[in-house]
Amino acid sequence: MIVKKTKTARFRLGVDVGGTFTDFVLINEATGELFREKCLTTPDDPVVGIMNGVARLQAAGVVKPEDIKGVAHATTLVTNTLIERKGAKTGLLATEGFRDIIELGSDMRYDMYDLAIEFPEPLVERALRLGIHERMAATGESLAAPSATEVRKQVRALLKQGVTSIAVSFLHSYRSPAHERQVLKLMRKEFPGVAVSISSVVAPEIREFERTVTVIANAYVQPVVRSYLQRFEKTMAAARIKAPILVMLSNGGMTTPKVSAEVPIRLIESGPAAGVLSACHAGARINEPNLLAFDMGGTTAKACFIEDGKPAFTGQFEAARVKRQFRGSGMPLKVPSVEMIEIGAGGGSIARLDGTGLLKVGPDSSGADPGPACYGRGGQSPAVTDADLLLGYLDPGYFLGGDMALDLDGATAALRALGKRCGLDVTATAAGIAQVVNQNMATAIRIHAAERGKDYRRSSLFAFGGAGPVHAYEIARILRMARIICPLGAGTNSAYGLLAAPVAVDLSRSYNVSLDRIDWPRLNALYADMEAEARRMLSDAGVKAPKLVRSADVRFVGQGFELHAAVPGGKLAARATSAIEASFHEVYKSVYEEVPGTLPVEAITWRLRASGPDPVVSATFGVAPAKRKSRPARRAFFPELRKFVVTPVYDRYALKASDTIQGPAIVEERESTAVIGPRGRARIDKDLNLVIDIQP
Description:
By secondary structure, the protein is α+β, with helices and mostly antiparallel strands. Helices cover 31% and strands 27% of the residues. The protein has 16 helices and 35 strands. Helix 9 packs across helix 14. The two termini are 38 Å apart.
C-alpha cells in the first residue's frame, strides 16, 4: 500500500464484501487522497474479514477510527445465502389452493430441447407451505377475510416444524394489501420472535409466481442479514468507528441498515451495482458515456451496458440459476436492480469435465477458503486463477502486492491432474480453461446485446474486479471491441463506487390499465402513497427533499413483456397520456427499430425512484510513484500467437499520464493485473486509467 500523510482528518470508507475478497477504499474528503486495501473474505463471518482490512488501514497509519465520518457497505451475503441454501427455515402462508405456485412456475421452459430440464428447488418444502382461507378480488374487493383463528393454527403448525421465518403471499395482494397486513399485525403481536415478510411490502406487483418467489426469498435471508448487520454495527462501534453506516441496494442507491434489514432481498446485487456506478463516474470524467462495464472477481463475472452515462435498470433479477447461461433457469425476483447479466466464472471457479467429457468451468467456486490450488490453503481442484498463473499472467510473488504468495507447484499439480483426464499437457489444459471462460463470457454478452438491441462494438469495455483486466483483452478481441479501459485500483473498483452512490429507493405499485382508460384520481393517489413512503424511508438517512422520478412498465395490449416509459411529475391528468405513450414509442423504437403503428398501449406497473443528492467525490487519483517502470520480464501465453513469449512487465504505480505501452505487455498493480495482447497499444490518461486500443 502507498501511504501518504494527510492534513485534515475526515474520511469516508467504502467496504465491498465479495465471495473471495473484501475490498476497501478510503477517501480523505479534505485532500481527495485515496487509500486501497484488499484482504480475503472470511465466509463463516464476513465481519471478521472487514475488521481485518480496517485494522490494516489503521496499522499503516492511514486513518484513526474516530476520523472515519461515514461508512458505505456492499455485501454478497444475500446471494451466497440463496446459492448455498444457508438461510432460515422458512414457511409460507398462501391463499388456499395456491401454495404450489412456486413449483408450477410460469410454464416456460428455458431450454425446450432438454428432456431432463432442471429448475431451482423451492426454498420452502411443500410440507411448510400452508393455505389460508381468504380471497381478495382482482378489483381489490375483499371477498373472504382471513380468520385469526386459522392463522394462529397454521403459524403454530409451522413453528412446531422448526420454522423461524414466515412469508405471506395472498392472491391479488398487490391490488389491496388489507388481508396480508391483518396477518402481519396478528403475528407481530402474538408471535414476536418470528420473522415475517408480506408480499405487499416486498414486491407489490402483479404476477403471482414471481411475487411469491420474491417474498419467500426475502423471508429466507432476512434473519441472516438482520443478524449480520446488527453484528457489523456493534463491531464497528466497539472499534471506535461510530460513523453512520449506509448499505448499497441492487438499484445502485444507498439506505440505512434498518431499512435494508426489512427487505434484505433488495441487497442481492449490492456489490456489482456499486461497480457499475464507479464505471459511470469514471466514464463521465473522461468523456466516455457509452461503456460495457465488465466486473470479474473471485466468484463470478458480470456485465452491464451504460449508455449516455447511465446504466440500464430492470424491475426483475434472476438468482441462483441452475444453468448460468440460461435465463429462466433461476429464481425470478421482483427486485429493482441495475441490469447486469452474469456472464461467466470468476477467478475461483473450478474447472472440470462434464458427463460428456467436455471441459467446463464453474459455476462451483473454491471461494476464499480453501480457494484455488495456488492459494496453498488446501484447495485441490484447478480454478481459473491457477490457469492464469500457469499462463504467466500473474506473478506468484506479487499477488496482493506480495502479501499473499501463490503456489505455482500446487497450481501445476491441479492442472496436470485435470489434463490427464482430458488427454492434454499442463499448458494446453490451462489455455483451454482460459479459452472456455473467455468464450463463455463473450457469448453471454452477445446474447444479452441481441436481446436488448444493443451494439456493444460502439462501447468501450470498462474492465475491473481482480480478474477483469486479466481477461478483458481476449474478450474484447473476440467481440471485436476496439477499446478497453482499466481504472487504477481495478480490483477495488466496486468499493470506490460505494463512495459515489446517492441514497435512493425504488418503489412500485401494479395497476393494469389501458392508457386511454386511466382512473387519474386513483393513479395520483397511488403516486402520493409511494412518495410519502419514499420520504419516510429516506428521512432516516438524512434526505429531506428527495428527487422524484416516475416511470411505468408499458406494453402494447396483448404483449407479454414490458418496457420502461417515463411518467410526468406533478398532478396527473388526461394530458399525460400522450407523454407516456410518446416515451414508450421512443424506447420501443430504440430496442426494436420500428413501432408497429398506432396500437393501443397499456401500463402494468407504476414506479417511483426517490434519491438524495449525489455525493461529491473529489478524488485526486494520484499515487506515490515507484522508482522503476519495468519489472522483470516473464514468459506469458497469448492465444493470438499460440505460444509463450517473453513479455515486458510494468509497474502500474510508476506509470504517469501520457505514458504509452505497446503490447504484448503486462501491467501489474497490487489489486489486479492487466494483460495487453500483441495488437494492443495502451496509454495512461489524466485519471491514470489504462486505456488499451486494439489495432485492426
